[in-house]
From TrEMBL:
Belongs to the FAD-binding monooxygenase family. It comes from Pseudovirgaria hyperparasitica. This is FAD/NAD(P)-binding domain-containing protein. Its cofactor is FAD. The keyword Flavoprotein applies. InterPro entries: FAD-binding_Monooxygenases, FAD/NAD-bd_sf, FAD/NAD-binding_dom. Residues 128-147 are annotated as: Disordered. GO terms for molecular function: monooxygenase activity. Residues 137-147 have a biased composition (Low complexity). Transmembrane segments: none annotated. It comes from the Eukaryota. The keyword Flavoprotein applies.
């Protein structure tokens, strides 16, 4: 391994999270020289950065890991739903077994990248960061020095949720105490024993944070705009020698997850809610509920996510199970409304252990923001539209991310025409295969916009990562210097993304799945909802048909230019 990361590799990968680690390993194994540019001081991406108390994974083990034999055969998980600390142990293990760090330029934040059509090279500018331990909502770094890298290939592995979103409330910077976004939590942690804490947002991050801080803080005020339809996690400890972690069982699970709709082990039941009588339905729902995790979401009746009535039946079951856990009548109405706040399962449900019990505590207040939103922040605390000021000492923002696109558009990537990605996508995102963009030759990205990203992360990363490697190997074998998506292929792929969701309940629901969580962002389908098998079929068909939908430049063409 190199004494320092390569400065002139054939591939520059942006981001040393799980996607970047996988790409580095897979491309190196295929004979490409690679280096990763990583803004933080350590590897792990989302898991490195999301240090807020309670952070853990919602996908049940053994699913949330790579199917790389030398890695999974030598690592044993202790929990079905590992905490961030246990996942960081896994990332250390990946590092040890796959030798990642020697290939990573740490503390290098990409601020600009453009493609030189004559030299056939990407030029990438980075700024050296000095601080990823920021405790405020400002970007977590202070730039100092600029470094330039070159490579024929650029791969963005910046992830689904890397660009934090903070609502632009007036007065935020006048608040007297600290403000922490879940994404930029201080390394040192925070002590809230004597503090009045506010948590704004009840998505996956908020739910986890509330469960942790609600037990520690002197008092907690939860600001909820939309109730989360949480599912019981039912985490269990895993035995290193147990049947779930044998090599044979893992090989079976990995094969299985390649064939399911979203890269989990389970699949939707092949029948309608209405196919069962009431008794059988209750029993079926009850079984999913008892198993916990995402079972009630991704293994439910086939029509729950598509048909209004079926969806309503699932919501009623959810509400009945959950209502009983909130003793206080007012809180119950806010957390488990009679009317479903949105179609069940069309936003990502979150898993909880004692969320409703924590919210039920006397020291925890739940503020319903529907019709009474946060208007501004003042020195003492938070002001809602009704004029009430709630005094707090610490504000925690669990307000989410400019998801799916933010990681790509926030790095200064420019196409051949000099136009930045953000500018290019202002009126709507266009990509080919959810991995390439026209005007951006030899640039690939994964686990982001227009891919099958509403899924199990490692499964999606392997699916797309393996294709990128296959495409690059084919290019090398056939003497192709560069490929670039055509505008027509982009238009067709984008149309398909939209067509799949047209008229579905998912499309009627606002969330980060369609960009509606960030005001001003175009609201449009951002995820391929056709399932893994169909996605795989289509992307490999492109390779089998001589890079259909791409313009190829052959090596000889370059020499002759
Ligand atoms: P999410 O799921 O986008 O959640 C953000 C939360 O913040 C959500 O409850 C929002 O309410 C709330 N929010 C956002 N803006 C505001 C304003 N202006 N006022 C009040 N509340 C607001 O982000 P997470 O970080 O929890 O999770 C992201 C993904 O990371 C997650 O799905 C996993 O895949 C991992 P809303 O629901 O929009 O009414």
């Amino acid at each position: 391994h190199p004494p320092s990361p390569p400065t002139h590799p054939s591939v520059l990968i942006i981001g040393a999270g799980l996607a970047g680690i996988y790409m580095l390993h897979a491309l190196r194994s295929a004979g490409f020289t690679c280096a990763i540019l990583e803004a933080c001081a350590g590897i792990g991406g989302t898991w490195y950065q999301n240090r807020y108390p309670g952070a853990r994974v919602d996908t049940a083990m053994p699913l949330y890991q790579f199917s790389i034999p030398e890695v999974y055969k030598t690592f044993k998980w202790r929990s079905t739903h590992p905490t961030r600390a246990e996942i960081m142990e896994y990332i250390d293990h990946l590092d040890k077994v796959l030798h990642i760090t020697p290939y990573v330029h740490l503390r290098k934040r990409v601020v600009e990248a453009s493609y030189d059509t004559h030299a056939r090279l990407w030029t990438v500018q980075t700024q050296t960061t000095t601080n990823d331990d920021d405790t405020t909502t400002k970007p977590p770094t202070t730039p100092t020095q600029t470094t330039t890298f070159h490579a024929p290939y650029l791969i963005s592995a910046t992830g689904l949720v890397s660009h934090p979103y903070t609502p632009p409330w007036p007065g935020l910077n006048t608040f007297a105490g600290p403000i922490h976004h879940t994404k930029t939590w201080p390394h040192t942690g925070i002590n809230v024993r004597n503090s009045r804490v506010a948590i704004i947002g009840t998505g996956a991050s908020g739910v986890q944070l509330i469960q942790a801080l609600g037990k520690e803080a002197k008092s907690l005020i939860v600001f909820q705009r939309t109730p989360n339809l949480c599912l019981p996690m039912r985490a269990r400890t895993l035995d290193a020698e147990g049947p779930e972690q044998t090599d044979e069982e893992l090989a079976r699970v990995f094969a299985r997850r390649r064939e399911t709709f979203a890269g989990y082990a389970g699949e939707f039941a092949a029948r309608s809610v209405y196919a069962d009588g009431e008794g059988a339905r209750e029993e079926f729902f009850g079984g999913l509920w008892a198993r916990g995790g995402f079972a009630f979401w991704v293994e439910n009746y086939a029509d729950v996510l598509f048909e209004r009535g079926a969806n309503g039946v699932a919501y009623e079951f959810w509400a009945r199970e959950t209502r009983g856990r909130v003793a206080d009548e007012r809180k119950r109405g806010v957390l488990v409304p009679r009317e479903a706040p949105h179609w069940f399962g069309t936003r990502r449900p979150c898993l909880e252990t004692d969320y409703y019990e924590v919210l039920g505590r006397e020291s925890v207040e739940v503020v319903d923001l529907r019709g009474n939103g946060i208007e501004r922040v003042v020195r003492e605390g938070i002001v809602t539209a009704d004029g009430v000021v709630r005094g707090v000492d610490v504000i925690c923002l669990a307000t989410g991310f400019d998801a799916l696109t933010g990681g790509l558009t926030g790095m200064g990537l420019r196409g051949r025409d000099g136009v930045g990605l953000g500018e290019r996508w202002r009126e709507g995102v266009r990509t080919n295969l959810g991995m390439t963009v026209s005007g951006y030759p030899n640039m690939f990205y994964l686990f982001a916009v227009h891919g099958p990203s509403a899924s199990n992360g490692p499964s999606c990363i392997e699916l797309q990562g393996d294709w990128i490697v296959a495409a690059m190997v084919k290019m090398r074998e056939e003497g192709v210097e560069s490929i670039e998506a055509t505008a027509e292929a982009e238009a067709a792929w984008t149309k398909q993304i939209h067509d799949i969701l047209r008229g579905t309940l998912v499309q009627e629901t606002n969330s980060w799945y369609n960009g509606a969580n960030v005001p001003g962002k175009t609201v449009e389908p951002l995820i391929f909802f056709g399932g893994f098998p169909e996605y795989r079929r289509q992307i490999y068909e492109v390779l089998d048909n001589d890079f259909r939908g791409f313009v190829k430049v052959m090596k000889e063409q370059v020499v002759g230019e």
